[in-house]
C-alpha cells in the first residue's frame, strides 16, 4: 500500500475520531510510513528537520505520542524506538520479533498468544492495561550469514 493511501486512511480515521491530524503529525506519520523497521525519535527528528527546520525533541515526541494513541505506530520498548503499523485501522494483538544482529523488527498478530497471555494474567489476578511482547533473536538472513563462519 502506498504512503499516500496510508495517509488518506489515517486522515479519515482522525476525522472519524474527532482528533486533529496537524501538519507536524502528518509529517511524522509520513516519515514513519516510509521507514523500513524501527526508528528512534532522534533519527526521526533529524529527518523531520528537513521538513520543519525549527523542530525540537518535544515536537517529535508529541507527534509520536499522538501516533501511538491512534494506533498508527508501536513502541519497541527494548530498543526505545518506534515501528509503523500497517494494520492501524483495526485493533489487533501484537508481538515483536527483533533481530539482535541487523535490527529487523517483525510484527506478529497472533490471537492465540494474546489470549494465552491475557488468560495467565487473569489467573494471577492481574488486569492488563497495556502490553508489549518482544522477543530478541536472529532473523533468517543473519542466521544464514553467521552459520557460514
TrEMBL record:
Pfam families: FUR. Keywords: Cytoplasm, DNA-binding, Iron, Metal-binding, Repressor, Transcription, Transcription regulation, Zinc. Its main location: cytoplasm. It is found in: Cytoplasm. It comes from the Bacteria. The keyword DNA-binding applies. CDD domains: Fur_like. InterPro entries: FUR (IPR002481), Fur_C (IPR043135), WH-like_DNA-bd_sf (IPR036388), WH_DNA-bd_sf (IPR036390). Belongs to the Fur family. PANTHER family: ZINC UPTAKE REGULATION PROTEIN. Homodimer. This is Ferric uptake regulation protein. It comes from Oceanisphaera sediminis.
Amino acid at each position: 500500500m502506498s504512503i499516500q493511501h496510508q495517509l488518506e486512511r489515517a486522515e479519515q480515521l482522525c476525522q472519524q475520531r474527532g482528533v486533529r491530524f496537524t501538519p507536524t503529525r502528518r509529517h511524522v506519520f509520513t516519515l514513519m510510513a516510509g521507514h523500513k523497521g524501527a526508528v528512534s525519535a532522534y533519527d526521526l527528528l533529524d529527518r523531520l528537520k528537513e521538513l520543519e527546520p525549527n523542530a525540537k525533541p518535544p515536537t517529535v515526541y508529541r507527534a509520536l505520542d499522538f501516533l501511538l494513541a491512534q494506533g498508527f505506530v508501536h513502541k519497541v520498548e527494548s530498543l526505545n524506538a518506534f515501528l509503523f503499523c500497517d494494520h492501524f485501522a483495526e485493533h489487533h494483538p501484537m508481538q515483536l520479533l527483533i533481530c539482535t544482529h541487523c535490527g529487523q523488527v517483525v510484527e506478529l498478530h497472533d490471537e492465540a498468544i494474546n489470549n494465552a497471555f491475557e488468560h495467565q494474567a487473569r489467573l494471577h489476578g492481574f488486569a492488563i492495561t497495556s502490553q508489549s511482547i518482544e522477543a530478541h533473536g536472529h532473523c533468517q538472513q543473519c542466521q544464514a550469514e553467521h552459520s557460514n563462519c
